[in-house]
Amino acid sequence: MTERALARPDNRLSFTDQAMFLWLRASGEEPAMQIVWIYEHPVNFDELRRFTHSGCQTSLGRLRIERSPLPFGRHRWVLSDPPPSTFDIAKCARPRAELTDWADERVQLPIDPEYGPGWRMGVAPFTDGSTAVSIVISHCLIDGLGGLSTLTDVIKGNRIDSDYPPTGSRTRRRAMVSDARETLQGGPEVARALGAAARMVFRHRHDFVRPRASRPTPTVKAGTDCNVVVPAIAIYVDLDDWDARAKALGGNAHSLVAGFAAKLGERVGRQRADGSVTLLIPTSDRTQDDSRQNAAALANISIDPSHLTTDLSATQVNIRHGLKSAREVPDQPLDLLPMVPFIPKRVVKACGDVIFGFSADLPVSCSNLGELDPALARLDGTEAEYVMLRGVDRRITRQALEEKRGVLTLVAGRISGKMSISIIGYQLGGQNSKAHLRELAAKTLAEFDLTGVID
Fold first, then answer.
1. Among 15, 154, 218, 240, which residue's Cβ finds the most Cβ atoms within 10 Å?
2. 261: helix, coil or strand?
3. How far apart, in whole angstroms, are the C-alpha atoms of residue 294 and residue 133?
């Protein structure tokens, strides 16, 4: 056997994956992805058990993060023993109106990218005869498109192999020696990152000493802060209606998603001083043989919401140029990534506050997953009537929400003949209820001459 064949694959976390993990531990926030299948016909539980058993054997169920024994070492991907191939079934049927409440409850159950479980699956019957199935996955383990692709492969019965070693395969001494050697080998890369960091800090030095008056005034009293379940809803619009309206407005399905997000952002007051709305749109930049679990570039696009309901042509051009630039022009902070293993937890949190916590742009996060594989809707072998796609923070405090000046997040995808859009929103001083968010979503849909089912 050749030396190359004997070589183990590099299972170190990419710098971006390690940065996400360190931010999770520093901030206490736990980003996750959730998919909910809603069946209005009987569910095949044998197929659900097959799916769960298959999923537990793949990286979906077994992937974990193993820390380096060195404080400045690179963490690694490892595989745990397969968890029990079971899922939770709610004992009592609930009213259909409580569907999203049940979905929220599923998100709150413990998952962890280091200690496990990395994902959870649950089933709930409802009194109208429908059944919902939820899967929640730690965002540290995989990004949205990667997670959906893995789920689709499991549903199809495709074999998913992983070459990562098992947990604890290295002795502590061996791990320390190996990680120290690799750290020394990466010295030149870290030196370049230090130089880039010095230049960036000098250019943005005023952001780090921003006057107190420009920061949000905290309203949460010491000792009274608590985690908040941010209101979340889902809307479903017939794809033919969505595409026809997009075409009539001079745009396409993607620009209509962005237009809807921007118009909703305007309605809840997430606008810049000039009246425009900033959309943060992630776009996959995954390459062949990419070792990153989270592989996306972020496009920052400014949209004037005043004419969106009559003309999407300018918005379509802005999005096209913004996504092209995000893919082709490297983001400046990427130069700093080799420093990630050396950054103390308190500095990770402080940098996150500077980057995300006090943005005057009040951005709206808009993730459009596009056309999804129809197989994804067939978790039990039959097509679900509705599929909900959500990106959520499992734990976020009221103080963090106020520092961010609220949040508005949309995740959209084309599946089961519908445009599925989940909306998560928190407005400072607002009503912050699901009923109010549903009302805002319905009014915004009506501005585009659209109607839909709203959960």
1. 154
2. helix
3. 25
Chain Cα centroid distance, residue 448: 27
* H or E segment to which residue 102 belongs: helix 99-108
Distance separating alpha carbons of residues 318 and 300, to the nearest angstrom: 10
SS3 188: helix
Match 């030196």 to its residue by tokens: 191
Can you tell me which residue has the tokens 């769960």? Answer: 52
CATH of domain 228-372+395-454: 3.30.559.30
> How large a percentage of the chain has pLDDT more than 70?
84
Residue with tokens 């950054």: 343
CA dist 100 and 106 (Å) reads: 10
Residue 423 in 3-state DSSP? strand
- pLDDT band of 416, cuts 50, 70, 90: very high
CB contact burial 191-221 (16+ within 10 A = b; e otherwise): eebeebeeeeeeeeeeeeeeeeeeeeeeeee
Per-residue pLDDT tens digits for 148-172 = 999 999 999 887 777 889 998 999 9
For residue 371 the two structure tokens come to 């056309």
**Where do the H-state alpha helices sit in 36-124?**
45-57, 59-62, 99-108
Instruction: Give the whole-angstrom CA distance, residue 450 versus residue 438.
Output: 14
How much is the pTM? 0.89
Cis omega (within 30 of 0) for bond into 117: yes
Q: How do residues 279-317 score in pLDDT, each as one tens digit?
A: 988 887 777 777 778 777 778 888 999 899 999 988 888
**pLDDT-based confidence at residue 220 (cuts at 50, 70, 90):** low
Terminal Cα distance for the chain, rounded: 57
> What single string gives the DSSP state of each residue in 205-234?
HHHHT--GGGSPPP-SPTT---B----EEE
In terms of Cα–Cα distance, which of 430, 437, 370, 387 is closest to 409? 437
Give the pLDDT confidence of 313-356 residue by residue, as tens digits: 888 888 888 887 777 665 555 666 677 777 776 666 666 555 54
